[in-house]
Amino acid sequence: MKVNITLFAQIVQYLDKGIFNDLVKSHKTDYGCKGFDSWSHLLSMVFCHLAKSCSVRDISNGLRSATGNLNHLGIKQAPSKSSISYQNARRTSDLFKDYYFALLHHLGQHLKIKRTKLRIKAPVHLLDSTTISLCLSLFDWAHFRTKKGAVKMHTLLDYDGGLPLYVNITDGKTGDNKGAYDIPIQKGAVIVADRYYNDFPMLNVWDSNGAFFVVRHKDNLNYEQIKEKELPPKRKQHILIDEEIKLSNKASYRKYPKTLRRVAIWDEENQQVIELITNNFSWSADTISQLYKARWTIEIFFRDLKQLLHIKTFIGTSENAVKIQIWTALITVLILKALRNIAEHPWYLSNLVAFIRLNLFVKIQLKKWLDNPFCKPPDRAKYGVQGGLF
Fold it and tell me: Which domains does the chain carry?
């Protein structure tokens, strides 16, 4: 079957335009707009990530090279460099932020993966942050160090879907625990975090709202043992201790006056002891260790975001432009994971991005290509052999 629209045009069909138009009306981002509307802005930024364009010139020239194919995208003409720069600085990033979460609600329920190791039914949320370095002389608002700028992405990742449920973008100086105070707390969910989130007032809020937590505690934790649980005879050998404790430091005890469970495990790969605290007393110690091990998923997410999409360098220097580029990168990741989910071929995300980048304006059927990207050309012998001229 002959396909008349490009691969890029078929990919952006996963962007729900109706939801986006409703958000445009509520944010009034097209008020007084001449030509380069919000939809064109969104597609230009998605193209920036998929093509890994390094500048506004690359975006403009890249879309201009698709002359005749832009009408399938809902774009009248390719944007100019100045239009992209102007709107990146002035069109609110909240539009793209709200659209990411609306699209996550629209597509996210189809992206759940089947758990293989975790034996609990509770939703598992992974909390961490990543730092994106910036040049302080250009990004003078992104305070981090004396001669270095940065932004931080404080992220709460859904373990099953592999996508953020919450993202807070701050400057680099904001502490991990301070940037996570507003995370949405789901009753019955498990929040897994590293030692930088060993903040007792915050842990107390999580516990009061009915959420469980598994957090690596700091080395200088002062506590008293209430009782030590007897380890089962057929226990996993990496479980060193399982005990019930209370905080002995008066200031810490005022912030978290309840009892805690402390589990120490041996990390064979890194040859170190990992000490965890949790407010759950019913799970096995091995389940708690597996929950903390699952935290590595968010590190993989940050790696993919930085390596596969255009997120290490920015095409605009304002705070709004940086946030737009980050939110549109998250929208792009959401689309890519939706495509990988419907494909019969076992795609790695890195391979999928690379193949799409090579075929953005090729006219092939998306679903057929996703299912069988290495299909062989038709056997010409079936159609007869061309005769000689003489």
Answer: 7-103+319-371 (no CATH), 208-282 (2.20.25)
